[in-house]
Specification:
This protein starts with a helix and ends in a 12-residue tail after the last strand. Helices cover 34% and strands 18% of the residues. It has helices spanning 2-11, 58-67, 71-94, 97-101, 216-221, 223-278, and strands at 109-112, 121-127, 140-146, 157-162, 173-179, 186-192, 198-199, 206-209, 282-284, 293-298, 309-312. The radius of gyration is 56 Å and the shape is elongated. The strands form two sheets. Strands 1, 2, 3, 4, 5, 6, 7 and 8 form an eight-stranded antiparallel beta sheet that branches. The chain has 324 residues and is α+β, with helices and mostly antiparallel strands. It has six helices and eleven strands.
């Protein structure tokens, strides 16, 4: 029967579980299990800031090492420099340029000593025929500088002259000699004819490291001192220029005053001569040569500081009507 079938269907459902809804029921709602909610997003960590590396300044360290030298170490250092300079000076004085150039006739430049020594002379030999710019020039010069051109001296240019080295393989060495300053670590120069042509080593300039001077580190640390010295020198030069201008102005004023005084004296002298030349010792009535003398003076001419006599003819001139 229909009632027994319905009872069997109900008893077939597992214990504790709801029976599946009948498709004929329109009031039931389906429940979908979507699981737990997703976790919230993790916060983005801030960017990591790297701490700067504590790298020591090699310049400061190098100079500090020099400053830490004991008096004995400093004395040995200075003695070593003295020996280097003495040896370099001797090498420059006694070297045989022909022997040194024997294997260098194709070279453009060589120096004696090979590494310039600060505080001593150096000779530069320049093979003119190896230079595209200066091979035909009759004047050769070098423009000098030191320490990457940061230092110059009064000897800013040196002239080269033909050397006694034989002209082997068409070589033509010219040479010059000058002293390298003590406080330098590098020699810089360019070659020129003294006019418009230059040999600057293809824009690199000619650069030679020096020994027995100071180090680059020491030079770098002295930059502030050099700036202060340059500022003081500029002030002194400006003061000297103003003083010289004031001195010249005073001299020019004195000269104008002297010239004006001389002109006034000359004018007075000329006026005196003119008045004297225009003066007369006597005068007659009328223009006739035999006319009566109106007045005269004696002596002729008058002498300054001496007694003079004026003779006046009362019977002549406009006062002739006056009775005695």
């Amino acid at each position: 029967s229909s009632s027994s079938s319905s009872s069997a269907a109900t008893s077939a459902a597992p214990s504790g579980k709801a029976a599946a809804p009948s498709s004929s029921s329109s009031s039931s709602t389906a429940i979908v299990d979507v699981g737990p909610p997703p976790p919230p997003p993790k916060p983005t960590p801030p960017p990591k800031v790297e701490e700067p590396l504590d790298i020591p300044d090699p310049v400061v360290e190098a100079v500090a090492a020099v400053k830490k030298l004991t008096p004995e170490e400093q004395a040995r250092r200075e003695e070593a420099k003295r020996v280097l300079r003495a040896n370099a000076q001797k090498e420059v004085d006694t070297h045989d340029a022909t022997a040194i150039a024997a294997t260098r006739h194709s070279w453009l430049i060589f120096t004696v000593p090979e590494k310039p020594v600060a505080g001593a002379d150096v000779m530069i030999y320049y093979n003119r025929t190896q230079s595209e710019q200066l091979r035909d020039r009759n004047r050769i010069q070098a423009i000098l500088g030191y320490n990457a051109w940061e230092m110059t001296t009064e000897q800013a240019r040196v002239d080269f002259y033909p050397s006694p080295i034989p002209h082997v393989d068409n070589s033509d060495f010219w040479s010059t000699r000058f002293k390298v300053p003590e406080n330098c670590y590098e020699l810089n120069f360019v070659m020129t004819d003294g006019e418009s042509l230059y040999d600057n080593n293809n824009g690199q300039d000619y650069t030679y490291p020096c020994t027995a001077g100071i180090t680059w580190e020491e030079w770098a640390v002295q930059a502030e001192q050099r700036l202060e010295a340059a500022a003081r020198q500029a002030v002194e030069q400006e003061e000297a220029r103003r003083s010289e201008e004031a001195k010249q102005a005073a001299e020019e004023k004195k000269k104008r005053d002297r010239d004006n005084a001389a002109k006034r004296v000359a004018d007075m002298k000329n006026g005196f001569v003119w008045m004297r030349e225009g003066g007369v010792n006597k005068r007659k009535v009328g223009d006739a040569p035999d006319g009566k003398t109106w007045w005269s003076v004696a002596p002729t001419p008058l002498v300054a500081g001496k007694t003079a006599t004026l003779l006046y003819n009362s019977k002549a001139g406009p006062l002739a009507w006056i009775e005695d």
